[in-house]
Amino acid sequence: MWRQRARRWTYRRFSPDGRLGLRLTLAGAAVFLIVVPFVVLLALVDVHWAPLRHLDDTATTHTHGFVLRHRALVGPLRATAYVFHPWVFRTILLVLAAWLLYRGARRLALWAATNVLVAGVVSATLKTAVGRTRPVLPSPIAHSGGGSFPSGHALMTVVGTATIVLVLLPLLRRAWRAVAWAAAAVLSVVSGLFRVLLGVHYLSDVIAGWILGTAIVLATTAAFEAWRRGGGRRPADPLREGTEPESGARIAGEGHARSA
Predict the structure, then answer these.
(1) Model pTM?
(2) Interval 144-153: pLDDT, tens
C-alpha cells in the first residue's frame, strides 16, 4: 500500500502532466532557498550583529565620502530617487495590468496587479516591524522617511522589472529574451546601489530588498503556473516563455504576435 502511495505521490510531484510537476517543485525549492538567506539577514539585523553593522557602516561611510568628493554626482543621484521610486514601478505595473485587461489577458492582469499588492504590503509590514533607522551622516545629500529595512526601491525595482519581462517574453524573439533579463538585472542592481550612494540605506537593506523581491516574483509565478496547469494548460518555462505564453497573440493583437 505504501509503495502505491509513494508512486502516486511521485507521479503527482514529478510527472510533466501532473498538476504539481517537477517545475513547480523546483520553483518552491527556489523560493525556500532564497527566503532562508533573507531570514538570516533579518535576524542579524535585528540582533545588531557587529560584523554586519561594521560592514554597513564602512560601506556607507566610504560611498558617502566618494560622492562628497565628486559633487557633480549629487544631482544625478538625487534624480534616481524619483526615477526608481517604488510608486513609479507600481504605476507602470498597474497601467500594464489595465492594458492586459483591455487585451483580454485577465489572469495575467490579475497576476501583475497581485505583484504590486504583495510587494507593497510586504515592504511596508517589514519596515514597520523591524523599525531600523536610516543612516545618520554628518553631511547628508539626501533624506528619506520611513524605515530602512528592507529597501523599498530595491525590492520594487526587482518586482517591477521582472514582472514586465515575464509579461512581454512571449512577444520577444529568443535572442532578445536574454537582453531583457540582463536589462532587468542591471536596473535592479544600480537602483539599489544608488540608495547606498545617496546615504539613505545600508548595504544590507538593499541586499534584503533584492532577495525579497526575487522571492516574491518566484512565489507568485509558481502560484500562477499552478493556476494555469489547473486549467488544463501545458507546462511552461516562465524564464524562457513568460508567465503565460499562450497570451502572446492576445497581448500583441490578433495575428500580430511575433514568432519565438
Answers:
(1) 0.85
(2) 888 999 999 9
